[in-house]
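Thread: quick sanity check before group meeting

JM: Hey all, I'm pulling together slides for Thursday and realized we never actually wrote out the predicted structure for the chain we discussed last week. Dropping the sequence here so it's in one place. If anyone has concerns about the input, flag it before I start.
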Amino acid sequence: MTVVYVLLILFICFTAYSVTESLRFKVTDYCVKSKKLPAALSGKRIALLADLHCTHFGRDNARLFKSLAELSPDIIVIAGDLTDGHDETEFEYARSFLKSLTALGIPVYYAYGNHETKFSLRENDLYNRYETLVRDSGCILLKNESALLCSGARVYGPELKLGHYNAKYEPDRGVPDVNEYLGPADPGEYNILIAHTPEYEKAYYNWGADLVLSGHVHGGLFRLPFLGGVISPRFKLFPHYDRGLFSDGEHTMILSAGLGWHGFPFRFNNLPEIVNITLEKDNEFTGKA
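JM (edit): ok, ran it. Output follows.
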């Protein structure tokens, strides 16, 4: 019986710690260098937000916006899953969040994740009305679209089919053909791709992405020393892509551990994060977490 009590106490402590950790966040800094980067972007900073899932950090996300104001980035990127994609009750969260975000006076680029695309599975035309809400907020929605950042640099946002995330929604589509969604990339430009899932890193690079900004995996939810993230959204144990900086020659992917959760707030050794990226014109990269 003593063993049962000890295990119960340990479980309660673990759960309490995990919930508490989910309600805090940190800022993680990276520096990305590239020969292709236009001089106009050198020294500029990107704040990457991912996987909020209607989470609040303080009333009306006051703590989150305070941190963003202090960071004062040049660009803000939302890499999908701002909402859960369930019903219209989430619209007010998105409207309030995007209004506060654009009020910072910083350009905001938003590409969908699988949860925004899930609105298309619901009734009452939620998907189209959510798009109207986002575009009316003043942020730049990239739904299989691109936007020019400056001469020689462009940011893209593909909206992948749900089958690229999980075959339960439709037959597994395998590796996406990014050209199908965005057309060809200009090899003479520095191409930033906001791609919610990191799983197709090589396909993004082959398409022509110089910098990929992702989320989706929530850092592996639980993180163990030396082993990293424990589980992926596809229930794969110890996924290769959990969080951090990945590179292949001149190509770089930065994968956020995300800020929120869907369902129960549960993280361990895996603080939610705002990712702060500094761009520099060079041919090397460094990163720290």
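AS: nice. The domain at 27-284 is CATH 3.60.21.10 (Purple Acid Phosphatase; chain A, domain 2). Residues 2-22 form the longest helix (21 residues).
JM: adding both to the slides.
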